[in-house]
Predict the structure.
Amino acid sequence: MSEAAELLRLVLLPFLLFCGSLLTALIAYLFIQRLTREIAEKRRQAMIALYRPLIDAVTCFGVTAALRDRLEAAPPSHRRFIGELLLAPLRTARGDIVTHVREAAQTVGLTKDWLADLTHRRWWRRADGVRALGAVEERSALSAVLLALDDDHEEVRAAAVEAAGRLGDLRALPALLGHLGDGSRYQRARVIEALRNLGPAVTPGLVEFVRCRPELTRLAAEIFGMIGTVAAIDPLLEWCDDRRGDVRAAALHAIGSLGIDDRSYYFVLRGLGDADPHARAMAARALGRGRREDAVSYLAERLDDEWLPAAQAAGALQRLGAPGRAALEARARDEGQAGDLARQMLWTRGLGPAQA
Amino acid sequence: MPGAFFSGAAAFLEVAIIIYFLALNSLYLLFSVVAYVRLRQHRRRWTARDVETIMRSSDTPAISVIVPAFNEEASLAESVHSLLHLNYPQFEVIVVSDGSTDGTLPGAARDFELMRAPVSYAQPIPTQPVRGVYRSLVHPDLVLIDKQNGGKADAINAGINAARYPLVCVIDADSLLEEQSLNRAVLPFIEDPDTIASGGIVRIANGCRIEHGRVTEVRLPRSPLAMFQTVEYLRAFLAGRVAQSAVNALLIISGAFGLFRREAVIEVGGFRADTIGEDMELVTRLHRLYRERGQRYRIVFQPEPTCWTEVPESLRMLGRQRNRWQRGTMQVLGYHASMLFNRRYGVIGMLAMPYYFIFEAIGPVIELAGYVLTILAIVFGVIDWRFAELFFLAAIVYGSLLSVAAVALEELSFRRYPKARDLLRLVAYGVLENFGYRQLATCWRIAGVVDFLRGKQAWGAMTRKGFTTT
């Protein structure tokens, strides 16, 4: 045999032993960890059976004297598990249950644990801690939650944004707005959600913020549309005259979402003639949602516009009752884009292709 | 002396093949380690609560789900029903009947109350003519396009043309997505707007309990052939693709479940209709375009969004499938040969494509050569039979280690197979696949190489059983 092959033969045996040992160890590890997991799951089920009635009573009736005694009697090693059970309903539930859970958490000492977790070295503990404080709406933790907005780890910052929104305290507004323009799109989505939770009261703060950060005007317009506050109408109308097309489009979109009154109707009609096609499209959309039939003739003219505003105009006409339908029928036999859109809208209203 | 020369040459080749074997398996071991780290990070990163919040956001992009279908009468209704009940804020389902000759169209028209609608959308990607567009009266977000036959890629392109939304999800007609699959698949696009494609994991539906187009109970297949494929898929997806995605070197997003930015796909001209590896070819082309432009982009694999699909349980069907996959790989590498070892294409040109060339394209040939050379070397006394025995044992043990490592990745991350008996079966088949199944797969792949060199293009017929409620 060649020298190289002989050398390989010398290496193969230890290699084989090494791989064989690794394989055996891996298989053993898999089965041991499965067994461990099953034991842990059985223990968990037993704990659930033990604490579920207590948690149900707390969430329904609050922390009565008897329940307080039982909570205080729980061993410290069970605290985290009790915390999991307490927090589970708060993913969707609001109202009195939040108050009951918060009291229970304070009784058991969980609030202190969660506050301590905010400085834990492991990021998921910090994230879980801040999330829990937000879920129970522990307002005394506001400053700690706001500090977490600047955590090193993205997940912790995300949890802090969510918690700030849940706390519903307007003192969080400046910090939230400060994070509106940075971070990932995912983070921005959370900030917007948190602002939505804070409700119409954010309007003055947001308007003031945009004065200092005009590059975020478009985003602010979108947020107003989502929050649904009529207090935002004035800034939105102002932004309909912004020099940037995307801002005008966002403002018109938001006005459409909020609903058109006599004053905004004029601005929206003017938006149909905007230089920016996206703005014209949003104006058409707003008129469709406004359901004012006197907008039909203006919308009908837009069917010959670029595709985006034309399509929105067609959709708007579809919403505007008999006058809208008549305007579509008048164009349904036309060649080209206007005819296509008119036929499409008439078809989807159920009149069928034969009539379209 | 000629005898000594041939002996030396044989020994040299033998050593080269051993080095190849070590390189391939060690690479896969490295994939497994990288994948383990990434999977742990992923599990921590995306919790159900995070996904819930994302779904409530207005930033969440809408998705057009495209289902190319050719003679899918048996399973189309179930698939479409399950798609229509996906948990996602805004999406549409576009079924493209690619010149089906069975009851696909009449069956769908009956099941979903389809009505013919005007064709009023631009068609930026050329396709075979569209014969009709049908919309459902009971499901406003369902569209069926009937077109002349042009192949799967052509059908997907027709669907992309008709898509209204910025993201297009391409799946097979017999794929079953889970309720949260779209939620999970869209996350990279939300996290990073430069993401242009995202693939999910394909799992094997054989043996699972399926009710109304949903996998309601995950079970392992009964058939040994499907079991081998289960282990294979775990290795390929949880180890291979997770690791490749980690370095933005993912060359393939499975045609059974992929999510793409519509504009990016249109920009490169859509799926290529004249190739059998259209999924890999598109992704390679996307890499090519963006790297040539020097534009930042991401193509990622997400290990959690799941698509369940039926795998062949007969040797004949499986052989055809593997033959096709091999031809597809070689075809794609041929089309983009200029990227190979080309620094202009970064990690794609210098790592991903060489990997596919050396270990996937010509790998089976090298493996076969290894078997043949070893036998000849023993016969002519170049190597001792005990050495060969030891080597084969090492190969089996190393191969088993990789398979069990893939099972470990599954066990330590998603654990979709809940019973302890399932774990035992997976481990057992992970070891057993090295005693014949892998060698058989190599033979099929070699047949694929031969067919490729002979210029064979056809897909081959695949008979499907269809999903029945179990």
In short: The first helix of chain A runs from residue 3 to 61. Confidence is low (pLDDT under 50) at residues 351-356 of chain A. Chain A touches chain B through 48 residues (CB under 8 Å). The radius of gyration of chain A is 30 Å.
